[in-house]
User: Fold these one by one.
Assistant:
Number 1:
Amino acid sequence: MPMSAPPREPGPFRETFPTPPGALRRTVLHVVFSVTGLLVLYSVLPVPRRADWGAVLWLLLGLAVFVALTAGQVRMIVKADHPRLRAVEALGLVGPVLLFVFAYTYLTLSTSDAASFTEPLSRIDAVYFAMTVLSTTGFGDIAAKSEPARLLVTIQILVGLLAAVGLARLLLGAADIGLRRSGRSPAAGDAHPRDIDA
């Protein structure tokens, strides 16, 4: 008579309730396709040559899209069958949107006034610069020189700090609400990464 292995207990980062096969794979694919779509959009979106107030206008429009997208993602998380997976997917979408909003704004500003930064920015340079500002790494190889560019960098730092703290909290809170809605309260044995001592 063959011996069967004992049933595996869920690990600390796994939801207590079963996840259908392929759900994690679908989440990863959705994130990959979303980021790929954003990259394609960013690479083909025309850049205005003269952008007096264009950079600020693009930034405001992009931030409005970011806020609307985040609000929509929160609603989807609350209604999802697997809220935590949906929260990861949402973070994989709204995070890059914020990055590309600022990258496109820097690209627009640099195209209209090459003296705004220490060097003219290409599309890749703009993403690189936005990423270094967002991560607060700031290597110093590219820096804002003009007042409008410095103002945009300051805005990105403030938005980035608020997003880093607020976005994760918002999405995890929505996932917890979604778990409670479906009768799977996080307090009822569903270990949460933030509850686990390192």
Number 2:
Amino acid sequence: MHLIERLEDVEKIAARCRISGPDVRFALGTLGGPAIAREVLRDLEVTQVPPALRSTVEALAASVFQPVDEAIRQIEHAISAHVDPEALFMLAMLLVRLGAVPRGLEVIGRAVGAGYTPVSTLARNYVFDPVRGDAPFAAIEAEARRRMLAASAVFEREGGPALLGMPPATRLYPV
């Protein structure tokens, strides 16, 4: 199951978060699957995308409009241009979606190791359904959860909830 199943869902999320732009389109297209990617790219003029983000948007477009080999080449180009673990994670999701599973999991493992902890996405996004029972994926998921719980503990111990006006010991995820 897709986390984002229809274009209306994309528009609602963007409106609710008061966000727009090519970075949002990239994220929603990656999380939502090929049909959503086609929709969010339909009206996007790539020349209007900031140069630093252009390769990621081009990689997403290639993943739905180009043959798999060309799409993987474009995604690898975008990966080589990034150090941001969230961007690397999203690009790696495209690799997994296209069937380049070992390379996709390698990049995802690198993103998690660099501090990006997408626990909910790893647990729920359809892209990972084919690898959920595989040891490499399970190790990545466990490391992401371990890092997220460690960060949550530091956040609580150092007064993060009070700083944000939250009740004490507010946990986003159960321990």
Number 3:
Amino acid sequence: MKKYLLSFALAVLAAFPRPQALRAIGTAENAFLQGEQYETRKRPDLAAKSYREAVRLRPNYLDALFNLARILDKIHRPSDAAEYYRKIIQIRPNNADAHYKLGIAYRRLGQDLDAIRSFENAGKSRPDFAEAFYELGVTYANAMRQKDAISAYKKAIEKNPDYAEAYNNMGMGYANLGKEGDALEAYQKAVEVKPDYAFAHYNLGTAYVMMERQNDALDQYKILQTLDETLARKLYNMIYP
């Protein structure tokens, strides 16, 4: 009977976390909350320290890992941020946000091939992730892979038909390939979905200049005068060199 009671007691103890583990979890949560408070006070250095302590106490603490990586990215430490985004992906391999943020960090480090893989993984994990396909396009463009960039921008637009930045960048990709007509259509679509998009108006005006459509270019100049005087002057100097 005594042996039975002892076995039962041990089984009950095993079913519940040890006090030390409970204290560690509580401390990790306290460290996380402290990190949030430091962020509110605009002390990213101390916030990062608190989130790192939370992760030390609970290595799989996803919220703390995300906040730590985000803060490190914010204070211009992309290499350290990438380390923690990779840890998140080890825990949640299909976490689209982590793949996306890792891609941003890799690109800041000049690791375009790694960035491309990360953005592709983000798109696979979340097929409607328009921003991931857009950033994939940006990275391809940085690598002078214009056709791949255009394909990525098209995917971004499929997911978000009002993605003005994707239309604009697609126009630049077409322009770099010498496809002036396609570039013009893309810029026109960009300003259609976002009428106050100054850079797209500038690119559209530039396209008109290249096609010797001065009156149309002047129309874009007039619009730019109300949006961005610097770009307006720049376009004016192209119209009247």
Number 4:
Amino acid sequence: MSFHCNDSCILEQMPAAVYVLQADRFAAYNRAAVDLLGHPAERLASTNYWELCAPWIRDEVRERGRAWLRGEPLDAHSVCPIVNGRGEQKWIEVYRRRIDFRGSQALLVTALDMTEHRAWIESSMGSIVQQARLSIGDAPRAADCHGQQSSDRQWGVDNGIRTRFNVLTNRQLQVLELVQRGRSNKEIARHLGITEGTTKLHVSTLMRIFNAPNRTFLALNTREMLR
């Protein structure tokens, strides 16, 4: 259902999509959310929110959303690919917080359409990668703390990745994939069994390689190249 307010309500006039998730459904939403998500209001109310996510991330979004509503640590910010009700593929930047909504736990979400920004990033991607290769491609591989070459230093995970990301280690590729999925440094560290400080170092290195000013840019910058 729409938020209970008249046409002058700030939420209804906001250009950003704002909605409330409760269980697996949209419990409330503003006009911008209806437009971004591409479903009529009456259809949106009966739609599982995770069904709008791109297929390759749908199961993860569903399980993480349920975990957050159970009270597990909340990831307040992420970038997510969706396919809206009009069949349009979009990238949205999501900000969320836990709230009490009509007596039950819910997530209050603000979503921004990043699709055009991502298209601009893709248009400049070739030159960024080329610059990274020129500046870093000939650097020697560092030995691990035992004086041996780490297994993480094998370039890439398949021939396509080796060709396009030949300055990255396996570990950096693993971290990059999790950044693209919207994971926080703490979540990445727990998932990979490394320290949060090491994770921060990997993310900083990736941002430098791809000339990314922030994590959102990094995720949008590189997603297509890892498919």
